[in-house]
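Note to self: keep these together.
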Amino acid sequence: MKRFFILLVLALPLAASAQKLTESAIDDISTKMAATFLKLNDPALVFVTEQMSRSGAGGLEVDKTMQDLKKDPATLDAALKFLYQYSDCNRQTFIANLKAMNINSSNVFPVATYTVNKYKNEAKELTDEKAALYKANAIPKAITLMVAPPANTNQASTAALDGPAPANATSGQQPATTSAPATINTTAAGIESADTRNWDVRLVFGMTKPDQLLDLYGKGNVELRDATDFDGNDAGKAWVVYPDTENEMAVVFYKDSTKTITFAGENAKWRAPFGIKPGDPIEKVQKVNGRGFKINGFEWTNGGTVDSFEGGQLDKKGVNLLFKALNTGDPKLYDQFTGEKTFRSDAGGVKKLGVIVEKVEFRTSK
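Structure:
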């Protein structure tokens, strides 16, 4: 019995270390991930950042998030989970990736133990998801660009695109260069070749002036037009990228250096934070948010917009969504969700109404 208690006493510190990281380890992993992220071409951090963006764990401006993970324990946990996923949920591979980021040797084992124990029940799901993402090219093995704010934010567009494209350590291939201002190239026979433009909305987040849009997408692809809000009210002027196409995107620059970025094409190619796009069913948005949320009644002031994300993953992240109902043929059903009221996304009848995202808007912070 005495021996049992001795073993128990020895095991307790180990178990505790698996449940909580020290401040030193937190600071170390946060600092080293930030340094690796800023290299822009590390395949592990490219994967982690993409997953942080797709899941919404990185917030609206994921680039800022990746440079100071220690500010939010839940966000740091998500980054470790995705690094574990990138490592095929293999402990030794995970440790090798930690060492590759120059994590202090005294922190490698505690971080690995903490992460593996925390996500061991999700290992199969994570490895299956990684395979599916690569197969669907949702996260390309040949990475063309990893977004991060340059030292001089006034050069956000050119700094992100003019440098040499990084090699991809996962595939061993040199990725194709990105030529955002160009339109789709065609061959002599008039056959369209691959579209090499970069469709990541995050490219716009670090911009501070319209000239950067012109540099990035080409003067012939950007127009200054009247802007309207979700209710159709005057909202000043917007710089519209690819106007009158399915990929139309409006950017409004404000005096306080913030901006709104809006797009509504259901077949648009834009890749946005949280993976939300026009045409997505309300059930997907609820899943991303992690809980039900409130929407303003249709056909009224702010009709179809989100009233509150109710403290979910999308709450206070600069995300604004406009919803529409596809199935309005049943007046009795539709009337339950119209007028001066709010309704919950998980309310009975919402699914029958066929509610989908009509427009997506992001508002950047100062």
